[in-house]
Every structure is written in C-alpha cells, then in structure tokens.
Amino acid sequence: MTPSSGSTSVSVAHLSDPHLAAGAAAPAAGLSRALAQVLTLNPPPTCVVISGDLADLGAPEEYDLLREIVDGFPLPLFLATGNHDDRENLVAAFGGGEHLGGGESAHYLVEYPELTLVVLDSLVPGAPGGLLGSEQLDWLDTVLDRRPEVPALVCVHHPPVPLGLPFQDGMRLDDGAELEAVVAHHPNVARVLAGHVHRQTATGFGGSVLSTAPSTYLQSPLQRDSDGPPGFAPEPTAFLLHQQTDHGWVTHTVQVNHAVNP
C-alpha cells in the first residue's frame, strides 16, 4: 500500500492491547478515548498503528465492535495481530481495506514518501508466545531493502527480547534473535514497535530501539520478582508517539485524558 501524506512532520501514534470484548463497555471506551486523544495532537500523526490483542477472544463480533470504533476515523489506522486475536476473523473483517494495508494478509507493507511501516504477524494460534517464521523474516528483509534511505518502523505484537518481566518474558517472540539480525542489517529501522506486556518499555534492539506501548485498557504491574501471572492494574492509560526530529527519532508518552468522552 502506498498512501499519500500531506504532513511534513513524520510521526506515528502507537496504541496497543485494547482487548475489545462483546458486551464489555470499558475496553471499547478505553480505545475510543485514546483515539480521541490522538486527534488532539498538533500536527496530527502520519498514521496510527495498534500493535495487537485487538480482541479479547478473537470472535467475529469483537471485530465488528472494532470496526464501529475505527471506521470513519480521519487518520490512516493500521492493525496488527496479537495472541488474543484470530487471524481468519480479523482478515474476514478487514481484509482488502485500508486497516490491513489494502491486502488480505495480517502482515503487510505501507509506504509513505517519508516513512516505511511494516506490520508483522506473530500470532501462533492457541499459544501465548509468538513466532514469525523464516518466510516472514525473509519477506521483511526484502521489503526493508526497497528504500534503504527512508526511515522504517517495524510493528510486531510480541516483544522479541526479555524485558525483565519474568511472566511476560516467558511468552515473548520465539525467533526474536532472527528478527534482531534482520533489523541490524537495515540501519534505517528507527523503531521496532510492540505490545503484549501492557507496559511502556524501551531497550536497544539490533542497532535500533524496541518500544512497547501501554494498553488502552488495563496495565500490568511492574512485577520483576516473580514468574507468576501479574494480573492487571487500573493504572492510567496512555499511548506512544514516535516522532522524527532533526536529530533523529524521539518517543513521547501521551497520557489519555479520561475526561474526554469517547
């Protein structure tokens, strides 16, 4: 997909883990508030990406709810799979449309004149952890070769390296080392965007920076001393804004104003 962009300020709003569930008002309200907050940014971001766990069970009605929220959103918005998603139901709901880059696959390429966005699909049905596989990694290497002079952002749900959170680290991306090797081969990769851990983290990765975004619904507590399930904490929600500057790329945390009506 090759959309046009009228903005000279390149930035990407990075949301994650809305966990939409049929009949549950809070997850839908959380995503709606976050998207409303995105629209207060000036200048607006080039695009928005939601890095997985769009749905809680992957049921068709959950993607119907997602469509109700994102259809008509005035900025380009792209979707990635997470371990709670169902690939077939997601593609059935959004395949061929702009939210999957105009294609029928859950991994795809979006090329702006000033930005390359690559969305990967790390979903392994029935498993909490993720895997890309050699075919998708080869594809990533090929598409990053297309425009080596243009900054690229790579989006994948599962973090590819340990983050010091034992429970989440046990269900990260299984072929993270292989992904890191591909990223290291392409110095134009400005950020690798992930979700899954329901917390904001940042670490070096393949000569780039890996950033995980908070959830638009519930956050995981900072549990570093146990490999048991951390549960969820009703902490304030937020999203990330990855912005190009004259010096390079910077990542901002944007707190979501819960006084905004979704």
What would you note in describing this structure?
This protein is of the alpha/beta class. It has a single domain, classed as Purple Acid Phosphatase, chain A, domain 2 (4-Layer Sandwich), CATH 3.60.21. The protein contains 6 helices and 11 strands. The protein is globular, with a radius of gyration of 17 Å. The mean pLDDT is 94.
Layout of helices and strands:
Elements: E1 11-15, H1 25-38, E2 47-50, H2 60-70, E3 77-79, H3 87-94, E4 108-112, E5 115-119, H4 134-145, E6 152-155, H5 166-169, H6 176-184, E7 189-194, E8 201-205, E9 208-212, E10 238-244, E11 249-255
Parallel strand pairs: 1-2, 2-3, 5-6, 6-7, 7-9
Antiparallel strand pairs: 1-10, 4-5, 8-9, 10-11
| Count of DSSP H/I helices | 6
- Any idea of the CATH topology? Purple Acid Phosphatase, chain A, domain 2
Measured as a percent range, the helix fraction is 10-25%
Our measurement of the CA-to-CA distance between the termini, rounded to an integer number of angstroms, reads 30 Å
Oligomer: single chain
By CATH's scheme, which homologous superfamily applies? Metallo-dependent phosphatases
- CATH class type: Alpha Beta
The SS-based structural class is alpha/beta
Question: Tally of extended strands?
Answer: 11
